[in-house]
Write a structure and sequence with these properties.
This protein is mainly α. Helices cover 67% and strands 0% of the residues.
């Protein structure tokens, strides 16, 4: 079961780099942006670039949803609801994890819209799943997310992994050049510039 979860339903999510988790969070945020723009307007913090395959940025609210996927809702939803979620995930695939996450946002839509403070918004989203005892209603809402198919998710995952591979190649090229190689300098992405700046400072002190 663990092998099936980590290789088929949540590929790369539990790697040391957590690349798989970041990929799925980006896919979830993209799905939320497309399926419920009114909620996205609230949680997307006005970042027009978020949701593009060319940016490293994710809205802060994505931190709330990290544990949803990494534990497949254990400790997030009531245990009775978790068991139902696992049933449908093993039967229909990882698309149900995304649909369930979108359903949670949908159920909590009004509470999210009523919040104006970013910290309070974080707390509201974090607490949303804990009181969702009516798993039947949640399942009904999740099944209406028909546009979130397994094919759609696989395509978006592939796009994001390709983006990560290109970013790694850029960093490798920059490192090679700094070490005296002939690789061309690549433009750093916003998400990597801070890490590379820290790396350069360490190299400078070492020299």
């Amino acid at each position: 079961m663990l092998h099936i979860i980590t290789t088929e339903h949540l590929p790369g999510t539990h790697e040391i780099s957590l690349e798989g988790a970041n990929v799925d969070l980006w896919v979830l945020m993209l799905a939320l942006k497309e399926s419920n723009p009114s909620i996205w307007a609230k949680v997307g913090v006005g970042d027009e670039e978020t949701g593009s395959i060319h940016t490293a940025r994710l809205p802060p609210i994505s931190l709330c949803t990290t544990s949803w996927f990494m534990s497949m809702f254990i400790g997030t939803l009531p245990i009775e609801s978790v068991l139902r979620v696992w049933d449908v995930v093993f039967y229909e695939g990882s698309k149900m994890l995304f649909r369930m996450a979108l359903a949670i946002f949908k159920v909590g839509e009004q509470r999210i819209k009523d919040v104006n403070d970013s910290m309070e918004l974080f707390q509201v989203v974090q607490a949303l799943p804990r009181g969702m005892m009516d798993i039947g209603a949640l399942m009904t809402i999740s099944c209406r997310r028909g546009g979130i198919t397994q094919e759609w998710i696989s395509k978006r995952r592939k796009e994001r992994r390709t983006w990560y591979a290109k970013e790694r190649a850029k960093v490798a090229g920059a490192v090679t050049l700094m070490d005296g190689g002939d690789s061309p300098v690549a433009t750093e992405s916003p998400g990597l510039s801070r890490a590379n700046s820290s790396w350069r400072r360490r190299v400078g002190r070492a020299r």
